[in-house]
Structure formats: structure tokens, C-alpha cells
Amino acid sequence: MHPTDQAVQELQDRRGQEPVNMARLTDRLQYFVDLNPEFEIPVDRLATWLARLDDPDDE
Hints:
mainly alpha
């Protein structure tokens, strides 16, 4: 199993029943980048991808 798969599975197992609040998610992503600036580009890509999931121009 790929490490990312394990991390996603752990997230699902630990937080899978919680509702997702986008304001809290964005706050947590920003906090993570503040603590780990070397991950700014991957977090930026993830946030952009999530923001555009329903955009038909990005398919």
C-alpha cells in the first residue's frame, strides 16, 4: 500500500463520520503550510484541485 493510501485511509477511519466545514479545512491547510512551508506548493495544488472539482472547464 502506498503511504498516501495509508494516510487517506487513516483520515477516513478517524474523521470519516465528521461533517466537513470548508472554513475549518482551509484554516487547517493554512496552519499546516505556516508550520511546514516546504509543503506550500503541494497544498496549493490540492486546494486548487478541490476548489475546481465541479468546474466543467477543468475536465
